[in-house]
Amino acid sequence: TIEPFKSSTSYPALLCTEFWPGDTENGYNSAFESHFVGWIQFQWLSANDVELPGFQYKIEQAGTVWTPDVATCQWPASGSPAIPPDGTAIGLFDRGEQMFVSADPADGYDWRAQLATYTGTQSDLFEVYDAGGGGVHLLASHGQYSGTTGETDSVTADRLTPGAGETFEWIELPNGDIALRAHDGGGHLLATAGKGRYSGLTLPNADDSQIASYAVVDGTQPSGPPSPPPPPPTPDPGPFYGTPQLIPGLIDAADFDHGGEGVAYHDTDAENLGGAYRPAEGVDIEASLEGGADVGWIESNEWMEYTVEVTAAGEFTVDVRVASGAGGGDFHLEFGGIDETGTVTAPDTGGWQSWADVSTVVSLDPGVQVLRFVSDSGGFNLMHFDFSQGGGPPPPPSGGDIYVESIVMSTSQAQGNRTRGVAVVKIVDETGSPVAGATVSGDWTGLAVSSTSAVTGTDGRATHNSKLVRNANGTFVFTVTGVSASGFTYNPSLNLETSDSITVP
Description:
This protein is mainly beta. 5% of the residues lie in helices and 43% in strands.
């Protein structure tokens, strides 16, 4: 792959890829950079902000870092790094080795992280000079510049004049430390080799800023090791927003309490399989086609807790938004450790992003308490809990005819340049009121051929998703083939619309 880029008559070449953490973890980016091929990675984001924390988390876990083009940016580094004025004396404390760097002529001028304290007199003083473009030259105390010629060439302070090989990008990390990227080191960061023939030497062969970082100390004063950078803040166990969520009101499933596994939730695996919204948690969260986030990959006996405040005692109707493409499943809701709902069934809605509401009633005391959602069987996705004042069983269906009032068509995108058709069908009764709990069947033709089924929510709408089509160019067509609801009769002659389509250019 590299060879065609090397054959270009116009350097530098630029490679654009879809983001995958393994590109960084397995050194693929490094391979290109070592041949002076730049790279840009793209992660597929479906215009849903809840996916952005997952992208940030992957970058931070890999330690990938760059200086942003926007001057006001602070992540993954400062867009306006504060390069010291020319001639400023500094010492460099290697965070990975917990030692100060020196370039002793007795060691062949090689950079080594080997001093427990900074003295300014043991070849550990460097003067900084702005090289332009975010780069610096580092002049050692014996009057020669530091430089390197490649990722297997240790950094040495034996250069009489500064040039490209003596230029290092000064990257200011969010915690106040810096990373140094070698211009002639294949674009890599400087770090101390821990083993092998280069053990103890500083080499431009690192790509993880978590180990390739330095604290900068005042070069005019002796110094002990600087304090470690503060760890990222961790919320204390308790409500997601810091205060209890209110009932009545809507509680998003992904807004479970802080506290982690065994405290705020129980998940059968430690990884957020969806990678969205709260990527460091073990609960599996993904971006929803309805916007926001939903909890997916729900297994039996998993649970999540939410600190809530019930504003007044009474009965509440709870509309729980669920989706399932595999037969549905069961759950229950506990308050203060007491099962207040009994078994509630999440139906098969015809797809993992075909959403419908299931309703139940709870009787609650006032005050702050803990709501626990418990999955009894898994097999469904969860969006939110919508509590409204008042309860009791819903009124029986009025009977009579029902029909299709409208079909609204759209498309949605998925990873890999794939597109699906989306048909939202609204079912109403003879009075024009929306009908909840109706099963709507339909056929997809055109770009995607399949049959789907979905259940209407309280708004009378059922969402149908077609199969994904790669590089779609044509028309998605959806046709309602059947509607059924307990207590009603489907009368297709009343349909205001039976089929609709949308064309992808």
